[in-house]
Amino acid sequence: MAAKPKLHYPNGRGRMESVRWVLAAAGVEVSWLGWRRGEVPVVCWSALSPLGCLEGAVQGQTQFDEEFLETKDQLQKLQDGNHLLFQQVPMVEIDGMKLVQTRSILHYIADKHHLFGKDLKERTLIDMYVEGTLDLLELIIMHPFLKPDDQQKEVVNMAQKAIIRYFPVFEKVLRDHGQRFLVGNQLSLADIILLQTILALEEKIPNILSAFPHLQEFTVKISNIPTIKKFLEPGSKKKPPPDDIYVRTVYNLFMP
Amino acid sequence: MAAKPKLCYFRGRGRMESIRWLLAAAGVEFEEEFIETREQYEKLQKDGRLLFGQVPLVEMDGMVLTQTKAILSYLAAKYDLYGKDLKERVRVDMYADGTLDLMMMIALAAFKTPGEKEENLALVVKKAKTCYFPAFEKILKDHGEDFLVGNKFSWADVQLLEAILMVEELDASVLSDFPLLKAFKTRISSIPTIKKFLQPGSQRKLPPDSHYVKTVRKVLQL
To answer: What Pfam families does the database record attribute to this sequence (chain B) (predicted)?
Structure first.
């Protein structure tokens, strides 16, 4: 059996959070391996059904490890040991490979777990939706690293972009086909990344979905998928919003 | 017979250049519609051709495609430039994605103030020399093959050549410590479709000049 996948990143959301979301949604649980203590719960195998939806049938969960980057020395060690292709994180050890570049990691997991549609056309549509959503998510990821004076202005910018550019597109997609999922009537990477982004935005702007009834319904339905529901419960590997400690850690790690 | 792909973008590199490169490398003829005015851009938006209101836009195979990386992945898959299986595909993906990051830094630098622009471009050259080119030199060294992945020409090779040439425009000596990349550059440049694209009169675009920057700023109201 393949070794457990292992995620390398600071202890917080950043660019790795989408990877945690997709692994969790695919029925693959990320387990925490602390820097000073280890914890290796029971391992059992799980696979997403070909139809892409675990409705009421959560099988066992595959364990994943996380190694949290806390010091520059740790990062240096990874770089010197040639573990990071372009000297950057996220990095995910999986299936004998060390994957970097967030999008590539997400694509690989999506392909493996049937979250990328049934053919090239569906795949491309999912890809377009994911790329757009990731552009919006990027604003959220960068937000805590802006100057304090710019942060409030940026929340307004995020809200505008979401409400004017992105949400109307997805609202229309859902309204036009009346299906639960964005593409091909099955769960895909596009649904997961959109849900992640909606929930992250709602933390800053609670009523952001007020003009989008189909997206509201979408949020509820996708949140109730058993693997995702589990990920949204306390005690899961979902990370809290970035705080001062996280911001400081990131600065210490990556600033020259 | 299928209609030629139609590209819609500014008359310059930006986010569309990698798409031009990949189509050209695959030997696919394409047409271009150049955006020159705000009115043209607003019409595209009103007509609903831009999914998130943005270009690049590529119309082909009955689809209206936006989002640069999604378009590139589609082309790579369609023209069999994506490796032979999932493990090769993820490598092609990583390598392409990394080089795209580097090239995006160059594209965005054109829009900065003169001082910032120089600083950013110097950083690009530094990153190329310390993070990206060493990685690709090592990949080529480790497997000793002609192409980056699976001993076969792929999207990753096209992107790397494009990136090498772009960084060389900033610093002609940038490959001096990378003998295998030098050989790679010569080798990939002589592939017939790419050789053709590198000749004057092709659809390859020039580096961004002040006219290009002004047009983009005007159209996008930046």
So the answer is: GST_C_3, GST_N
Q: B69 vs A120: CB contact, 8 Å cut-off?
A: no
DSSP state of A28: E
Q: Give the pLDDT score at B3.
A: 87
pLDDT in tens, B124-138: 999 999 999 999 999
| Backbone phi, psi, residue B203, to 5° | -85, 5
Instruction: Give dist(CA A133, CA A189) in Å, integer.
Output: 11
Q: What is the pTM of this model?
A: 0.91
Tell me the average pLDDT of chain A: 87
* A55 and A225 Cβ atoms separated by less than 8 Å: yes
Q: If we measure between CA atoms, which residue out of A27, A130, B74, B119 comes closest to residue B82?
A: B74
Does the distance separating the beta carbons of A169 and B51 come in below 8 Å? Answer: yes
Cα of B66 to nearest chain A Cα, Å: 7
SS3 sequence, B9-41? ECCCCCCCHHHHHHHHHCCCCCEEEECCCHHHH
Q: What is the pLDDT of residues B163-179, one digit of tens each?
A: 999 999 999 999 999 99
- pLDDT given for residue A36 in this prediction: 33
The answer to whether the CB of A27 falls within 8 A of the CB of A47 is yes
β-bridge pairing A62-68 and A28-30: parallel
CB A35 within 8 A of CB A70: yes
Closest CB from A99, A121, A169 relative to B90: A99
